[in-house]
Amino acid sequence: MKNTSTSLISLVIYLYLVSNVIYSQNSSSYNRLTNQNLAITLCDEDADGYMSINVHEIENYVIQTVGVENNYFLEEVLVSSSTGNIYSIYSTSNDPYISTLCNLNGSFSDIAVNSNQQVFVCDDYSIISVDNNCSAFYYDDSSFQNNALSFDDLDNLYTGNGVESRIYRYSNINDTTLSNYELWHDFQMGTSGGDFVLLNNKMYISWRLANDNFRLYEVTVNEDRDYISHIDLGQLPNQTYGLASELGSLYGVTPNKLFKINLSDFTFSDIIQNPNPEDKWFGAAGLHEAIVFDINTYLTLNDAENEVNSIAGTWTNITPGEETLYIRIKSTTTGTDDIIILDITISSYPNVNQPLDLIKCFDDVLDLSEVSTQMQINPDDNLTFTYYNTDLESNNVSNPLPLQYSSITNLETLFVNVENNNGGCNLVYSFQVINNDIPLLLPLSSMQSTLILDFCYFDENSNGYFNLNDIENDTILSEGNFETTFYLSHLDAENDTNEISNIYYLENPIQEIFIKVTNEHDCYTITNFYLDIDCFTNIEILSIVFPKFFTPNGDNLNDFWNIKGATDRIKRESIITIFDRYGKMLFSFIPDSIIGWDGTFNGLQLPASDYWFVFKTKSGLEKTGHFTLKR
C-alpha cells in the first residue's frame, strides 16, 4: 500500500463547491457565505468517526481553495517581460487568462510585490517602483546590477545580480532611496537565476549553476528571515528566471510559460503559455506573496462573528462523522474580513485485504475482477476498484485498464485504486503480475499443412499401434521439463477431459490427435498432428527381399547373406538373427552395419545346410524364414 501521509492536505480526498457560491454583504464589516457551504471529506483510519485535525492545515487549505468577493483574494501572478510589459495572470489554477497592466520603456528582468501590493521591477541597473497609473520611479541604486527581485513578509527586499553568488537584502525602502542593505547569504558557487520567495515559512530560490543548470533551493530561515541552511530539491525547467509564491502555491516562469511546482513530488504542470514568443517572460511575483492573512477558526457562526472562542492546534471533532467550522479570514493589509463555512464529513478508508500477486501464463487474459474479489472483505461494502499500469502518484497516469487485460511482459506492476463510495475515501495498492512462459510448440496444422506421425509398432498379435510420445521431438521447440497428454479434440485438451493413452491403436483412416504440453508452472500449449495409416502397410516393409540361398566360396558372387530391397531407414532400424536347425544362435547383425553374414561361426566355416533367420524392426514387425548355405 502507498504510504498515506497524516497531514490534512493528504487526507482531503474529496473537495467540492456545492452549487454556486454566493456572497452577500450584511451589516458587519465582513462578507459571509450565506447560501452554499464549502464541503470536504476527511478519511479516518480507525473508522470511529473521530479525527485529530490540524487546524492550521485546515485554514491553509481553505485559503488556497476558496476565494472571497474582493480582488485581493483572487489568485494572481504578475509577470514582467523583455519589452517592458507587466502582465497579470488571473486564476492560475482554473481557466487562466492574461491581461496587460502596464507597458513601460525598457526590458525588465524581474518583478516583486510588497505587503502594500506596490509593484517593483528591475532591469540590469535599476530598481523601479510602478504605481497604479503605470508611472515609474527609478531608485538611486548604482551599487549593484540586478536580475532578481523579491519581498518577504517583513517587507525586506532581496536582490541578486546574476553574475555572483551573493544575495543582498534591503531592510528599508523609502520614497527616494534604497538604504540599509546587507549581505544576506553567499552561496559560494552559481548565480541567482530567479526569485527568492516565501512559502510556508521556507524561502525558495531559483539558482543557476554552470551550463545553465537551474536548481530549486529550499532555504530554512528564522523569524527575521535570516538564512539558516538550504537544500537542493532538484532541477527546474531550463531558464526558470522567476518564481512566485501565491496563496499557498509555488510557480515558476520561463521565457515562454508559467508553470506550477508541486513540492510534494517535485513535478511541474504548465499553467499558461506565453502568447507572444518575441516578448519573453523574465520575472514573476505573486500578488499576495508579501501579505499576511490573519485566519481564525470557530465552532459556531456567533463565535466567528464576535471573534471569541477560536480553536487552534490539534482539534478533534465533537459530532461523530461530521462537523461544521467557521473560518474567519482577515487581510492585515486592508482589514477586510470574510467568514467561510466549512462542512466536514468524516469518512473511512476501504476495509480490504492487501492484493496478492497474480501468477499467470504469458498468453492468459487477466481477469482483474479476481483481484477485487480477493481484496474485498465484506461483500456488502460499496467499493469501486479501478486498475492502472502506471503509478497514481506519477505525473503521467494513464486511463484505467479494462477488467479483461492482457499483460505483455514477464513481470508487470499494476496499481489498484479502491474507493469507498460512501464518502470518497480511497487507498492505492500495487501488486505484481507474474507471467510465466508457455511451452513453445509447432503451430496448429491443417490437412494442407500437416504434422504427421508415421512411425508405428506391432504388438505380439501383429496389431499395429502408435506410441504418441514419438511426436514430442517434432512438436516441442523449447527446452525444459514437460508433461504431455493426448486428446481427440481441442476442447477436450482445454478442459482436460477424455484423455487418451499414448499407446494408440488407429481406429479411423485419418486420425487427428491433439497434444497438450504443460511445463513446471502449469502453463500449457496445445497443438495437433495426424497419424499415418499407411505406416502399417509401408512399402518399405513390403519391398524387402529375404534371399533363399547364398554361396560363400570366395568368388565375390553371392558370398554374404543379407536382406535386399530395404530402405536405409529399415536397415538402420532392424536386426537379423541367424540360427541353425537346432535353434542355436549363430550370428546377429544390423543390416546397415555390415555387408552380411559370411557363413562362419567363431571363425569356422559352417557346412552347407538350411539356416533360419528372425527379422525384427524397431516398430515391432517380425518375420521369420530360412535359407540355404551352398558350398
Q: Detail the poorly predicted runs.
A: 1-36, 67-72
Query: How many structural units, i.e. domains?
Result: 5
Number of helices: 8
The 3D shape can be described as: elongated
CATH homology superfamily name of the largest domain? TolB, C-terminal domain
Strand content is 35-45%
| Helix/sheet category | mainly beta
Multimeric organization: single chain
User: Strand tally, please?
Assistant: 49
- Biggest pleated sheet: 7 strands, mixed
Q: Percent helix among the residues?
A: under 10%
Whole-Å distance between the termini? 95 Å
CATH class category of the largest domain: Mainly Beta
SSE topology:
Blueprint: H1 8-11, E1 12-17, E2 23-25, E3 30-33, E4 38-44, E5 52-54, H2 55-65, E6 76-81, E7 85-90, E8 97-103, E9 110-113, E10 119-122, E11 127-130, E12 136-138, E13 148-151, E14 157-160, E15 166-173, E16 178-186, E17 191-199, E18 202-209, E19 213-221, E20 227-235, E21 242-246, E22 249-254, E23 257-262, E24 267-273, E25 281-286, E26 293-298, H3 301-306, E27 314-316, E28 322-331, E29 337-348, E30 358-361, E31 366-367, H4 369-375, E32 383-388, E33 404-405, E34 411-420, E35 426-436, E36 452-453, E37 457-458, E38 464-467, H5 472-475, E39 483-487, H6 490-495, E40 503-504, E41 510-518, E42 524-532, H7 539-542, E43 549-550, H8 568-572, E44 574-579, E45 585-589, E46 600-601, E47 604-605, E48 609-617, E49 622-629
Parallel strand pairs: 3-29, 4-29, 30-35, 36-42, 43-49
Antiparallel strand pairs: 1-4, 2-3, 5-27, 6-7, 6-25, 7-8, 9-10, 10-11, 11-12, 13-14, 14-15, 15-16, 17-18, 18-19, 19-20, 21-22, 22-23, 23-24, 26-28, 28-29, 31-33, 32-34, 34-35, 37-38, 38-40, 39-41, 41-42, 44-45, 44-48, 46-47, 48-49
